[in-house]
Design goal:
By secondary structure, the protein is of the alpha/beta class. It contains 17 helices and 27 strands. The strands form 6 sheets. A 6-stranded mixed beta sheet has the order 3-2-7-25-26-27, covered by helices on one side. The mean pLDDT is 93. It binds zinc ion (ZN).
Amino acid sequence: MSEERNPPADRRADLLLLNARLITCDPTQPRASALAIGGGRILAVGSNAGIEQFRGRGVREIDCGQRSAVPGFIDAHCHFFALLRSFFSLDLSPPAVHSIRDIRNLLLRKARFTPPGRWIGGAGYNEFYLEEKRHLTRFDLDDVSLSHPVILYHRSMHACVLNTLAMQLTGISGDSGEPPGGTIERDLETGKPNGLFFNMAGYLQERIKQPISTEEMAWAAGQANAQYLSLGITSLGEASVTNDFNQWLAYKKLKEDGLLKSRLQVFPGYSSLKEFRERGLVSGSGDDQLSAGPLKIVLNASGSGLVPPQDELNRILLEASRSGFSVAIHAIEQAAVESALTALEYARLEYPCPPLPQRIEHCSECPPPLQRRLAAVRAAVVSQPSFIYYSGERYLTQVEPRVRRWLYPFKSLLGLGITLAASSDSPVVFNNPLTGIYAAVTRRAESGDLLTPSQAVTAGQALEMYTLQAARASGRESTLGSLAPGKLADLAVLSADPLSVPPDEIRSIRVLMTLIGGEVVWEG
Ligand SMILES: [Zn+2]
C-alpha cells in the first residue's frame, strides 16, 4: 500500500465528492470540482486529481455528474413549533381560498370531522387577496360551529381571529384589557371585541390548551425535518420570543432522538433570560448541533408609540449584555428600526464586544440615514426576501411610495458592508431558499410586479445571504456558510446552477441531495 493510499488519520477522507460544479462562497476559491470530507468536516476543496491524496481505505464516493453544489442553506430566522402547528391547521393562503365564503366552507367541512370541543385552526389568510378585502371577525365564524373553538391566523402571524367560543375559552371578554403591545379590535359603539386581535398570537397561544398528542407532535416533527432537508436547509435559527428553558429541553430531545437533523440555534425569549443564565446557557453556548443564539426581543411601533418604549429597551439591552447575551431585535417599521439602533448604540458604549453579532430582524423600512447607523454600530440585518415574492403586490398598493423606496434595500445594505442574512420566517411563508434567491435577484412578486428593482442584488450575493452572510449573522462563520477546509461538511446538490441560469428559472431549481456533516440526509 503506497503512502498516498493511506494518508495520516487526520487527513483521511471517508467521503469524496467528485465531478461537481461547486459554488463554494469562499472568496479565496469560488469554484471547484471536488471535495474531500472526513470526520464530518471538509478536508480539502479542489479538483478530482487534487483531492486524490486524501483517499483512504474504504472511502465512499459520490459522483455529482457535473451538477452544481452549494453550501447548505441557513434559514437564519424561523419558527419550528409554529411550523409543526401549521401542519394541523387549514391552509387559508391565497391559492387555497379566494373569499371569506371559501374559508367558511372549509371550516364547515372540517367541523364535520372534528370531535366537539377540539380546536380548529387555520393559517395563511391574507385580507388583501380575499374578495371582501377585509379581515374576518367572530361574526363570520360563529355560525360555522357552536361546539368548536376556532382560531385563524393572518399570513403575517401578527393578526388572528377567534370565534366567540374561542374567546370565552381564552378568557377574553368585553372588559379585557390589552396585554403589552397587543390590540383588541372593538365595536365602535358597544366597545365589545369583534374577535380580531393584533400582535397577540403568543398571548393567545399560551391560553389555548391545544390537545396535540405526543404521537402527533412526533409525526409533525418528521414532516418538518423532511421539509427542511428536501429544501437543502442544513441550519436553522429558531427565533420565537416564546422560547424558554422548557422549549430548549424539547429541542434537545428532538436532537437526541434524531428527529431534527438540521443544526439548530435557539434564541431565548427575553423574558426567559434569567432561567437560561442560571443554567449556564448564554449566547454561543452549546455545540454544532444545538446552540443558544441571541436573546429575542420584539419591538413594535404602533399608533400609540413604541412597545417597549426606548428607556425600557435600553435597559433590556444593558441587562442582556451584562448577562452574556447578544440580541436579535424584531423591528419592522422605520420608527422601530430607529429605536433598535438607538438601543444598540447605547449598549455598545459599555459592551463593545458582544458574544455573537447583534441583529435586527426584518429591518424592513430602512432609509439611508438608518443604513449608515447600522454600518457604524456593526449590527447584522436578518431579512426575508421571500416576502417580496409572496407580499410584493400588497406592498405596492398599501405602502406609501416614500417608504417603499427603502423597503428591503438589499443592494444598499450590502454596498455599505453590512452583514445581511436571509431567512424565511417560516411558517409565515414557505421556506424554499431558492424562492428567496429568485426574489432578491428579480425583485418580482408572485404576480410578476416589480418592487424597487434598483435594490436587486446578483445571484451570487443572494446565495451568500442564505449561506456565508447567514453564518456570519449567526456568529458561526468559522464552521458554516462556505465550502472551505476545516468547515462542517454541510451542502446541497442542485438541479441547476443558480448563478448561470436566467433569473426567471432560479425559483424552479430543485435540491437533489442534502448532506449534513458529510452524511447524506436526503435524496430527491
Ligand atoms: Zn419571526
